[in-house]
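Troubleshooting: if your tokenizer reports a length mismatch, compare your output against this known-good record of 263 residues.
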Amino acid sequence: MLRRLILIVLLLTAALPGVAADYSDVYYDPAEPGWGVFLVQSNTFQFLAFYVYGPDSKPVWYTAQLTDDGSGTYTGGLYATTGTYFGSPWQGYAIATIGTASFKPTDAYGATLTYSLAGGPTVTKTVQRQTLTPFVLAGDYSGSIAGQISACTNPADNTATFRGRYNLAVTQVADQSVKLTFTYVDTANNGIVCTLDGPLTHRGRLYQVADAQYRCTTPGGRPTIATVTVNSLHPTGQGIEGRWVGTVDGGCQVSMHFAAVIN
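Known-good structure output:
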């Protein structure tokens, strides 16, 4: 019973069904600094603004409006816009379709970007989120969790759903490391404390902890210790959220998503 409780508490939520991953960020190829793409996403729609260069090596802007094609790749039209000189009163603009574009994520942090101009070249680039300055994650939060556990050697340890509430304390050393301490306060899990601790990798608007040490204890119980991967860790307008995956006792595979608001 105790072992099962420890396994259940490992669920800091599974990916929420029906909610598209958010790829909003600035993207570039670090081997080719000087050009890039701004991407803003609304559910399954993306707006891209390219800052690139024309045949005369002068700056040129294109935009794209892309929609998830059902496979996780975003595709749509590529446009060129002309308008009034910014120093003059605005008289309107003209927009022309000049080709197509696609954004195919390879993971949470990078993608294959392809755009084709009518009568011109097809360009394919491997791009990644461009990191700017460190985010502040440290603070005290309150949050809720939900998740699932699967593929356990003992099928009785599989859990389709879990719900709980916790207080979260986050300590951070700039872009170097982070420690998240979850203290559960709901009736079913009161007194259980779980920590995620490891080195930070900053990737645009997101952080990753590739080798996070996970430790979870119950009052008077044996701790569960595992190495997991934290993905998409980032501050929100009101708090913090992230995901992690890993394999724990009994071969159980855990996938989770946690979210909390600042106190």
